[in-house]
Amino acid sequence: MVELVTFGEAMLRLSPPAGERLETAGELRCRVGGAESNVAVAGARLGLETAWLSKLPDSPLGRRVQTALRKHGTDPRIVWAEEGRQGTYYLERGARPRASRVVYDRENTPIQTARPEELDTDAIERAECFLTTGITPALSERLFETTESLLGTETLTAFDLNYREKLWTAAEAKRAYEELLPAVDLLFAPERDVRSVLGYEGEPEALAMRLRERFDCETVVLTRGPDGALARTREETVEQSAVSAETVDPVGTGDAFVGGYLSRALSGASVARSLAYGAATAALKRTIAGDAAVVTQSDVEAVLEEKTAEIQR
């Protein structure tokens, strides 16, 4: 049985070699990535049975996405469209003082027209958990409606705010979140989004408590970047420090955290253990090029053992 089902868009990521500009590069490296597919991959590599739902063009580029996700152990359950194009984004890595630059090219992609009746909703209903993120409802009005419908299932629902200012304004995102979040059981909320989009103020624990009470979530996980993470349940608050890492590629770090957390939470682990797994998976992702957390359970366990040894010294 599939334990975790995610829904969203995956794109082709095109990047020039380090130190080169998009406008002058003679070659581009192609990878596959998307928030929800990244979570499914991380979960699969850490022991979960996962599936990713989406709508892609029936083309060589769409099939490249399918092949990449299968390679990492997740099951891509795709609606193939005759019209539309494969979404892409271009990443030009910066070096101080030049910032990195991202250029999106995702207009007229098939997923923007996806309806619940096209998708494998039976998989969602049978799964232990269904996850999507704030990126998906931002792509079109149709996808907002589809996201709202899918979150209405009886399955445990998880949602990552994942605000993207290039997709919609903070005011638009706030209105959408306030409509969607009452249906969410497990909320992953970057602290920066809680403050800048929802407009909440206060200490991290107070933010998590306010979110849980406002939207009646079972658990709120507040992710805090280099300051770690904090989870608030109905019974307790649990904190987790970040795990330091040498950064090769930061893209997908948050998705790796979510995938790592869910890999333990859906296996019956405690909130503390799930947070630790999320932090370790996120740290490992920063050392890996590309969007996906190409990790193993032994990788994560080794990081946690080293972290424990550091604390005991």
TrEMBL record:
<dbReference type="InterPro" id="IPR002139">
    <property type="entry name" value="Ribo/fructo_kinase"/>
</dbReference>
<comment type="similarity">
    <text>Belongs to the carbohydrate kinase PfkB family.</text>
</comment>
<dbReference type="InterPro" id="IPR052700">
    <property type="entry name" value="Carb_kinase_PfkB-like"/>
</dbReference>
<dbReference type="GO" id="GO:0016301">
    <property type="term" value="F:kinase activity"/>
</dbReference>
<dbReference type="InterPro" id="IPR029056">
    <property type="entry name" value="Ribokinase-like"/>
</dbReference>
<dbReference type="Pfam" id="PF00294">
    <property type="entry name" value="PfkB"/>
</dbReference>
<keyword id="KW-0808">Transferase</keyword>
<feature type="domain" description="Carbohydrate kinase PfkB">
    <location>
        <begin position="3"/>
        <end position="291"/>
    </location>
</feature>
<dbReference type="InterPro" id="IPR054871">
    <property type="entry name" value="KDG_KDGal_kin_Halo"/>
</dbReference>
<dbReference type="InterPro" id="IPR011611">
    <property type="entry name" value="PfkB_dom"/>
</dbReference>
<keyword id="KW-0418">Kinase</keyword>
<protein>
    <submittedName>
        <fullName>Sugar kinase</fullName>
    </submittedName>
</protein>
